[in-house]
Predict the structure.
Amino acid sequence: GYKMVKIDKSKFDRIDDIFREKKYVNYTATLCKGEIYRDILIFKMKNQVRGTAKICFSCLAHRIEGTTANTSDFGQDGDYDKLAKLLNH
């Protein structure tokens, strides 16, 4: 039930900034019991998949794979809102 949409390359730097490893003191928790990822971003380099980010903008859940960075703080500081705007969500 997913629809593939390619993201314009002009947005890559801003998306990279959202997915950088960050540390925050105040945390956002997910709002639903069972995570249902409604959006999946696939990160490629030279036509090879390097990682994925499964996102639920409704309950603020995420699962990021393919990186050695600590992704537990993803979503803080308005990351979901910034990403939703970039993806025209």
Q: What stands out?
A: The two ends are 17 Å apart (CA to CA). The first helix runs from residue 12 to 18. The chain has a mean pLDDT of 84.
